[in-house]
TrEMBL record, chain A:
Organism (species): Rhodoplanes tepidamans (Rhodoplanes cryptolactis)
UniProt protein name: Tripartite tricarboxylate transporter TctB family protein
The keyword tRNA-binding belongs to this UniProt entry's keyword annotation: no
Keyword flag Transmembrane helix: yes
Transmembrane domains' residue ranges: 7-27, 39-63, 75-105, 117-136
Automatic annotation (TrEMBL), chain B:
Record has 4Fe-4S as a keyword: no
Keyword Transmembrane attached: yes
Source superkingdom: Bacteria
UniProt keyword annotations, A-Z: Membrane, Transmembrane, Transmembrane helix
Domain DUF112: start-end pairs: 20-438
Origin species: Rhodoplanes tepidamans (Rhodoplanes cryptolactis)
Protein name per UniProt: Tripartite tricarboxylate transporter permease
Residue stretches spanning the membrane: 20-49, 108-132, 144-162, 169-186, 206-224, 257-281, 314-342, 354-380, 386-406, 413-430, 469-489
Length: 146, 502
């Protein structure tokens, strides 16, 4: 059975709202005249919980559209690439990290052509180096520091 | 005469060679990225934001305005050539624009779009110059309670024209507001939702969220769709409109301009409402309504003019009230904030050169758009044929470098990746992520005004109905909510979108 988008969205809203309420439980609410830092998040999260409950309730009566399939391959490869970039850019430099992003991104697609990907990576790294490193002189490190 | 001297000041700023160069670069880059299928103005502006970080505020804003117009026009180009609207406001352009292109009149359709946009832009620039200072003066009377109600109205109104479920859209706004509360509270210095991470003390940068959702998330969504065959239009002959074409363009474009200018000032999807209404108006008053949808030139001229003049007058609530009327405008507020500028009634008084420079560069941006695009139409059309498999790695890499360069913090790239996941999940759940951005930008402002209003009223919530301006906005909000809840009208709204999207 596939779940309806309304049901999952509703559950997501409820859990996010509840999480915000619980995590922010100790933030002082203040008085009406001097609202504390907890007042507004509490207001907003309660609203979110309420909307989530409405969605859940509605999905029980009118299921609505079902969730279409999740494409795991692009999801995993693309995110691995960008996360690795974040982890490596300062240590290994932008050249290696950028090549990783491009190669992993292309692996997300089944149609992988090694020569083309190599040329693309080379072109993009030169472009990044020219625009961001030389052109805008952002403090990027090109190569690993030994 | 005051207006004229102000405009003169603006043009002296905008015509400085360096600013002219940035405006040109902005239009060029904005069109180049915006013309790529699947990249609408929000994505285009998010991707190009980092390029403006290192500039002076004035040049940065001028360049951003250029990017904005370039991206908007790029969206119309894809709407006409490949039936792929870059954003909701160019949906209408696909109706007759794509039909014109299929009949071999792509050049004429593109030229019509460019010329009617330019005409609309010219008139709208003067409307802004005359109307904005008056509105800003009016806005100075606004108290915190009035701002609170205005922003609540703006958020709710923005929901009307979002696609899909209203409850989900409001939920997305609330999620955005919650995200906006992250960081150290300015009044109590209490860290809220920072999870012990020192970098979260300043909250999450909105560009990180925007690039994560619209750059990384959309890429994953597109890859999931697989390669779909697109029908490309190959014939771009006959670019310049003949005199009798021009005659057919002028009147619809003028009607579209004024309708768009009026609707653009309203918070909440100004350009979308404008292009839809202008199209409906032309169809209603036409002698041959049956030719609409089959390549009627009025069906391109009017909505394109309306769209452009509305997106220009949308700067009025942005610059005078600090109220973004659309996600794109929310991005502009965010960009202003990055340069330490807070949009609002004080902006005109305190930074006249910036305000009027922006107004003048809007017109220059429009001019550059025509100058650049009419000769380059063939080239942009070729760019459309860049295979997606070469395009998306470039988008991802630029997003990574861009996010990292915001404050040279590698953690931001990882946070952006998380928002990429969030963006993908949201599309799967049929939740539009754009309202989240609106909520994120407006959330902290709403909290601050709520706090101040209650402080002044000693905690009495009656202040929101006692002040006339605030009361008006709350009544308007109630009317909007009522409209949303009336099933008949809601069904009608869904029908409008279903018809035009199909």
């Amino acid at each position: 059975m596939r779940l309806s988008t309304d049901l999952v969205t509703g559950l997501l809203f409820v859990s996010l709202g509840l999480f915000a309420i619980v995590y922010g439980w100790n933030y002082p609410l203040g008085t009406p005249a001097r609202i504390g830092p907890g007042y507004y998040p509490m207001l907003v999260s309660s609203g979110l919980v309420l909307l989530g409950l409405i969605l859940v309730a509605r999905s029980l009566f009118a299921p609505g559209d079902r969730i279409e399939g999740i494409s795991l391959r692009p999801l995993l490869f693309v995110l691995t690439g960008t996360i690795l970039f974040g982890l490596l850019v300062e240590k290994a430099g932008f050249v290696i990290s950028a090549i990783l992003v491009v190669v992993l991104a292309r692996l997300a697609d089944r149609d992988f052509r090694p020569l083309e990907v190599g040329l693309l990576a080379l072109g993009l790294v030169s472009f990044v180096a020219a625009l961001f490193w030389l052109g805008l002189s952002l403090p990027l490190r090109p190569f690993p520091q030994w | 005469m005051d207006v004229l001297s102000n405009l003169a000041l603006g043009f002296s700023v905008a015509l400085e060679p360096i600013n002219l160069v940035y405006a040109f670069l902005g239009v060029l880059l904005g069109t180049a990225i915006g013309v790529l299928p699947g990249l609408g103005p929000v994505a285009t502006i998010s991707i190009l934001l980092p390029v403006t970080f290192t500039l002076q505020p004035q040049s940065a804003i001028i360049m951003l305005a250029g990017i904005y117009y370039g991206a908007a026009y790029g969206g119309s180009t894809t709407a006409i050539l490949v039936n792929l609207p870059g954003e909701s406001s160019s949906v209408v352009t696909t109706l007759d624009g794509y039909q014109m292109a299929r009949k071999g009149k792509a050049g004429l359709a593109l030229a019509t779009a460019a010329l009617s946009s330019f005409m609309a832009g010219t008139i709208a620039t003067f409307i802004i110059a005359f109307a904005a200072p008056a509105l800003a003066e009016f806005a100075l009377d606004f108290g915190p309670a009035d701002y609170f109600s205005l922003m609540v109205f703006g958020l709710v109104a923005a929901v009307i024209l979002a696609h899909g479920s209203v409850i989900k859209a409001i939920g997305m706004i609330l999620v955005g507001i919650l995200l906006g509360t992250m960081g150290i509270d300015v009044n109590s210095s209490l860290p809220r939702y920072t999870f012990g991470v020192p970098q979260f003390g300043d909250g999450i940068d909105f560009a990180v969220i925007a690039m994560g959702i619209f750059g990384i998330g959309e890429t994953i969504t597109n890859l999931g769709r697989g390669a779909e065959a697109r029908e490309y239009v190959k014939d771009y002959k006959g670019l310049w409109p003949k005199p009798h074409d021009l005659k057919e363009i002028v009147r619809p474009a003028l009607r579209g301009t004024f309708l768009g200018a009026a609707l653009g000032i309203l918070p909440g999807g100004g350009p979308v409402l404008a292009s839809f209404s202008a199209y409906a108006l032309e169809k209603r008053i036409s002698d041959e309504p049956e030719k609409f949808g089959k390549g009627a030139i009025e069906g391109v001229a009017a909505p394109e003019a309306a769209n452009n003049s509305a997106s220009q007058t949308a700067f009025i609530p942005l610059l005078t009230l600090g109220l973004p009327a659309s996600p794109v405008m929310a991005l502009m507020v965010g960009a202003l904030m990055m340069h330490g500028l807070y949009a609002g009634p004080q902006l005109i008084a305190e930074k006249p050169e910036l305000f009027w420079g922006l107004v003048a560069s809007m017109w220059i941006g429009n001019l550059l758009l025509v100058v650049l695009n009419l000769p380059l139409v063939g080239f942009w059309a070729k760019l459309l044929t860049v295979p997606y498999r070469l395009l998306y790695p470039s988008i991802l890499l630029i997003c990574c470098i861009g996010v990292y360069s915001i404050r040279n913090d590698a953690l931001d790239v990882i946070v952006a990746s998380v928002f990429g996941l969030v963006g993908y999940v949201l599309t799967r759940l049929q939740c539009e992520p754009a309202p989240l951005l609106l909520g994120f930008i407006l959330g902290p402002l709403i909290e601050e005004n709520l706090r101040r209003a209650l402080l002044i009223s000693h905690g009495s919530p009656a202040v929101f109905v006692e002040r006339p301006i605030s009361l008006v906005f709350l009544i308007l909000t109630a009317i909007v909510v009522l409209i949303l809840l009336l099933p008949a009208i809601r069904a009608g709204r869904e029908k409008v979108f279903a018809e035009d999207a199909g």
